[in-house]
Amino acid sequence: MEANIRYQENVVIVDLKGKLVWGRERLVLKETITQLLEADKKNILLNLSEVKYMDSSGIGELVSSYRAVKQAGGRLKIVHLSNRIYTTLTIMRLLPIFEVFSDEKEAVMSFATEA
Asked: Among 46, 50, 55, 71, which residue's CB has the most CB atoms within a 10 Å radius?
């Protein structure tokens, strides 16, 4: 799992690549979110276009990341979910907690339109 960070407007975009699964891979997301929050970066967009597989541990880490950002007063949103991960989150009834976008520009703009 790799996490590459880029900035657009007042949003941090985290491009994840690989499998979000048990072990070191899962910790990449956790460490990235922790570092961003410590740097007071609270508008976070996870780009999952290159994440093709996520196990239950990865899903748990995704939910934990959402909670950590929310508790810090921030917002975490997702862009480019694969059909497989979208279906998994739907079946697990987790999709409603996330704001999910198919277009990155629209996702970035959504941060600006909120109070």
From this structure: 46
